[in-house]
Structures are given as C-alpha cells and as structure tokens.
Amino acid sequence: MPPAIRVEGLVKDYGDVRALDGLDLTVPEGSFFGLLGPNGAGKTTFISVLVGLVRKTDGTAEVFGHDVEDDYQQARDAIGLAPQEFNVDRFFPIKEVLMHKAGYHGIPEDEASERADAALKRAGIYDKRDVRFDWLSGGMKRRFMLARALVTDPDLLILDEPTAGVDVELRHDLWEVITDLNDEGTTVLLTTHYIEEAERLCDEVAIIDSGRNVTVATPDELTEKGGDTLTVFLESEPATPPELDDERIESLTVEGDELVIRTPSASELVPEVVRQLDAQGQTASDIDIERTSLEEVFVDLTRREDGDEGEATDDESRDDDEDDAREAEVHA
Ligand code: ATP
User: CATH 2.30.29: does it fit domain 228-291?
Assistant: First the structure.
C-alpha cells in the first residue's frame, strides 16, 4: 500500500512568491500527522496542491499513489478536507449541503442521505440538520466543516487549523472525534498553531518553514532534541563561581546562588554536578529540572536569522490561482 501522501521536490510559485520550495514529505497510511509552521510557511498551499485547488509549479505529489493532477479524481475522492475558511453554500439546510457534496463524489441519493446523517451525528450537530449554515454558531460551523469532510468517508482526512478560535470544550470534543477516526484507520493530516494540540494528538510532526521542511520527527523526539534546563540553587552565594567540567554540559551560567545548566538529559547529570560542587565546598539546597517544550523547539527551529516574520497570507497578493480556487471551492 502506498503512503497516504508522498511529495517530492514540491514547488509552488505565486508570481514572484515562492510558497513551496522543494518540499519533501511522506505521510504513512494510518498515521496522525501534524504540520506545524509559522504564518506563511506554505501549509495551506501544500494542502491546496493535494486537493487540486492550486496547480503545482514543479515536483511530484501523490495521494495513496494517485498523482494529484494526472489522477485528480481518484486522489480527490480519497480526501476529506476541512479548510480554514468557511467556503460553504450558506442558503441550504446543512444536511442538503452534505448530500450535494456526496452526490458530487458519485454517491447515490439514498446513500448520500444516510452518510449525511452519520457525518452530522459524528460531528455532534445532527439536531441542526435542517438549519442553514448562516444560522449556526461559530462552534457549530466548525463542527459542520468536519461533518462535510467526513461525508464521503475519506481515507485521508485533512484538517487545516480545525480548532482555530474554538472554546476549550469544543476543542476537546473535536480531538476526541478525530482521534476515534484515526483509531478506525483514517489517516489524519492536521495543521495547527496550537503546539499542545500537535503534541497530544500526532504520531509524527513536520515543521515547515519558507516552503521547505525543517524537520520531521515524533513530538517526543523533538522535545528530546531541545534538551533540559537544570537549575541548581546553592545554600549560599559562592565567593568565586563554581567550575563544572562535564561533556554533557552545553552551557553554564552562574547568577548569585543559582547555576543554570543546559544539557541533553538533566537527570543523568545531577549526581556528577552534586559531586563536583561538593568537591569545591558547595552544597546544593534545591534542584529544578525543566524539559524544553515543543513550543520552544518550534520557535528555535523556525527563528529567522534575517528577522523576517514571513509574509502573512494577503488576499490582495493572490494571483489567478484564486479563480481556480473559487471554481473548485464550489465542489469542495
Ligand atoms: P498560515 O499559517 O498563515 O495559514 P500558511 O503556512 O498556510 O500560513 P500559505 O497560506 O500557504 O501559508 O502561504 C505561503 C506563502 O504564499 C505566503 O507568502 C503567502 O502570502 C503566499 N500566497 C499564498 N496564496 C497565495 C496566492 N494565491 N497568491 C499569491 N501569494 C500567495
């Protein structure tokens, strides 16, 4: 079985703006995969290429082995997308919107009705089935976006910031629904700005920046990479700063009676530090170990040397792909 997503050397230029710059990524079938990156890193563009809303400039992109352009329909039929923006037909009852969508994917009417009910139940808005989209609350709209992504029973569920701006309760609810789907075998690709979300849900995370992947790893591997901060509080302020010698110490700063040590693994280093301090006539009164958070690792990996914050997604700068997008959105 081919991977759910495989892209190699993926490039997308919008006029002069290079949104994807040789992206390589493989998302294994069945995984819960997170895509993290600062604003403007190219996450939405990547998703848009996968679902055929945007034409790639170069490279390959396949979904379950189907080329996203040459085998567009097969690739697209495998994907359920919950986009960031509410691109919904607002004037029909939401169940009808789901049935239209199923119909567009070739599902007969009876089955479409059953699937629409099932998707609405799963997303927790079945009792709103006869209400039009405009009249739903913000949280219900998010639920509806998930229901719409699910109505075709996709093998690959793509969620572009599904919990942006929702309250804590709904966020947890959505996490549960998505996790259940993944447990049942659906591959999930999730973009998010909530690092905690990626840490909790994802088996693997890709951090992308300026249209390239910076790193791909499990959340645990990433935080391990960040290492620990070990703070040693001395009983009294030393007359001369203590000297510590161990190759596991990456940096040491002394401020008054506090030593701050950066190290890959603090717990292994503590006995040696205590021993060396003792030899210099110092006693530790307290010790604190802090693991670098995924958030700190993320900031570190994507910090731009030139201070460029990245270009925000700017509607005015969009080129003719927007017309493609509008056209395709009708069926999205
Ligand atoms: P965010 O986290 O803010 O949603 P993102 O990672 O999804 O950002 P993209 O929306 O893919 O990033 O944008 C990548 C780059 O491409 C940005 O510099 C953006 O301004 C630019 N861009 C995106 N769409 C278009 C377009 N249609 N026309 C011109 N430039 C675009």
Answer: no
